[in-house]
Queue: 3 jobs
Job 1
Amino acid sequence: MNILVFSWRDPKHPLAGGAEQSMHEHMKGWVQAGHSVSLFASRVIGLKNEEYLDGVRIIRKSFQYIGVQIAGFLFYLKNKNNIDFVVDQFHGIPFFTPLYVNKPKLAVLQEVAKEVWFKNPLKFPLNLIIGLIGFITEPIVFLFYKNTHFMVGSASAKLDLIKFGITNKNITIVPHGVVLPKTIPNRKATNPKIITFFGRMTVDKGVMDAVKTFAILNKQGSFKFYIAGRIETEEYFQTVRSEVKRSGLGEKIEFVTNPSDPQKFEIFSKSFVLINPSIREGWCLVNIEANAVGTPVIAYPSPGLVDSVKDNYSGILTRESKPEELANEVMKLVNDKNKYNKLSESAKKWALQFSYKKSSQMSERLIQRILK
């Protein structure tokens, strides 16, 4: 079977994240099952217009914000006789495949954007204009997909889709997997204790709440802090650095920008806990990655986080989305070594449940079911 996947970004895109990694792992599984898989994504300066990655053919045309949907439409019209199945990955603006694809198809969604539309990195007033347009039109977009089957990774994402008018029978939850290094690092014996934020340095990921949490903890004990992840815009990164300086944390916080996978797991392994103040996720892979090395996650009770963090088992969900709550839960674990050790062990067990081999087999069976 020839499968065509539409996505804004491919795994090598400089802004690629968990959504792109997840989609790629599913596509790898489909290739291993004997299918021919092509990914149509936006063009990136410095990357080839076409290449193969893990058996997946990647085609890059036009740019992610303007043009890639049109280019995808034209590509489909030219090649539709050689395509058996189409996957439309939602990441803000989808490819509107129900309007022109009359073949079996699947929409893949990490999360709906909702209030995240207003957290875009554009300057005022453009950020507000784009935020309003996105927030108002997002429910309308889903009207085009009423008869399309969706694959999501969490119960939170499924519930949001139902609220947007997609029927329950057209939504299948396929749990995410986790990609682990061949050797799991073990660096827990650190003094002072390390508290980590790991994620894109953006408003919606809550990096400013992480800084506020660190400032509170800095007054209550001896800690070292990590802020690790990709820089979305240099302007916002400098805003974060200014807040760090203003909070008197300049010597206590280490920034690790664009960490490699080995660096990521090394940081998680050294960390006492990972804090996650994101306002909305589809699932959040970093929580499972941290759990895999025995690091509990303390997170806001946000959509997606309530799915990937099993409260009082793989970590702690705060009662409210406030930095004070995060800091309070950290201190509780600092003062309760027995509970911390139990969480650390059960976090590892939680992470072991997630496998992309198993997930890609589930998604391949879903495709076969839709074809019937």
Job 2
Amino acid sequence: MDLYIKQTGDLKILDEKAPYFIDRQIMRGGELLNKDTDLSNAKSEGTVIEHLLLQNFASFFDVGEHGHMKLRGADWNDALDMGKDRGESVAFTAAYAGNYKKLASILREYKKASGKDEIEAAAELEGLLGVYSGDELQPVLNQYCNSVKTGFSGSKKSFAIDMLAEDLEQKSEWITNHIRETEWFTDSEGYSRYNGYYDNSGRALEANGDKHGRPAMMLTSQVFTVMSGIATEEQVTEIVKSADKYIYDAAKGGYKLNTDFNEVKTDMGRMFGFSYGQKENGAVFSHMTVMFGNALYSRGFRNEGWKVLGTLYRHATDFEQSKIYPGVPEYFDPKGRGVYHYLTGAASWLMLTVLTEMFGIKGSYGDMVFEPKLLPSQFDSDNKASVSFEFNGKPVTVIYKKTLNASSVLKITVDGKLISETGNILPKDKIGNVIEIELD
């Protein structure tokens, strides 16, 4: 939603109505309604912004004993499916912290564009506001889930947009501080990074090391703490050092998903039942590897980001090693062969990263913004680098021309006409087919 709104400027979508889905699963999947419960009259709908607020706020309260969101049956990785009781996903808690900041920004822009100070939403939303930590979290969630288990009441209430944005930002700040204070650790070999999970026994997955007490690492834990801004710049540097030490293997395509835990962890997930190097257990898993590159680029670590994507690209396009036609497979096996060609999630994240981070072409509520992070080697002999794509249905080619090694925008020319006094932003009404940018 953030990507869509930033590129199109379509804030009106937030006012569109969408139905709520309801079935027998209640209490965030923890209980079932009696099969005889009549749900025929439980139909209800709410605006898109109401959906986003309820989904994001409710998740904040669904935490385990260490104060992180419960893993339940799994997070993005459906092979982490055996921690439903005491398992926690620090990684996804970090992701939500980043999402809260984005949603708060969208709300403020919506207020400015619409001229509204308030929005109307389900009255049940009120119970999820104003609480940020402590023993109150689970009771708040239980009360909310009980109130909506057979559908929303239909009662609406007006909420100040500024108040909602501030509440999101405070929740994001609490998560950020909590993860920084509790999950950053240094292992026995002196390398530092974030612990990203708790298993079903309530133990920190990475901070405790593998079965033999040796250093352990999960790439996902680092991706979301970097991407969300929770990891400080100094910590990002340390995370890269850990990743290079424990999970980088150029001969297999780059950064692996995790180190070898040397056990079948039945209190964490079936991934540990795979042979190490296969699928989610220690393979170079393209989806999360590409997201690691995206996270590094987004924080300004362009050399490190290119190492991630460049290694993956070179391996995938080396037929003798990857044994696949050029593309993005789900993962590379222990022999370096690409398996399950082609993975749409990894491919879309790769294209997104190349366009929005390497070439730095982003949307800002319909306007186009240029924040290139290209390396000198990525320009041709004429000191140019170009990319063609569609922006809001319009075919566009952007051509960068550099002087020396700098990357700040000096001037923008659109279809042969110089656009002045816009900095690195091209207003939506001036976007043309061929955009030439001189970097100074």
Job 3
Amino acid sequence: MSAGGTENKQATADASGAYTLELAPGSHTLSATADGYLRKEQLVSVAPGTAISADFTLSARPKKSLVQVTKKEIVIKKQVHFATNAATILPDSQQLLDSIVDVLLANPNIKRVEIGGHTDNRGNADANLKLSQARAEAVRDYLVKNGVPPDRLDAKGFGAGKPKGPNITPMQRARNRRVEFLITEQ
């Protein structure tokens, strides 16, 4: 565990995962790292004479990377899963999203990313556009909550407007229902 601001401090967690770190009043970025786990960060504000609690749940680093950084995008090797007709991220997507957090925290040269939400063509076009926007925002919120600065992320819903392919078979429609991470500034 480390804290950044005007100074860097480190704390080591005990066997239960608890740690103590004395910080001056103000805003601090706490970073949690452990061998074999994906890193996370959290912004905290400390008022004079108070104690705060910061909890981190680290995900194990997958044996095979779930993401790949190219010049133009962060390619994900799995889909982000949501509840049907909702922007609720399903638990099986946590490790994938934590991998994206890890990549963004490790690569500050990636200054801005557009999170694009896409749907298939089934259903009402306006509802699909709203759903894709809500899903992109849910992913953005997850990344921010886990330490990615909000000014590095834009969420944009495209509805069914940018399909990867035809929307004929269930498999093709599933491919079009996706979240993409385009690097818009380096």
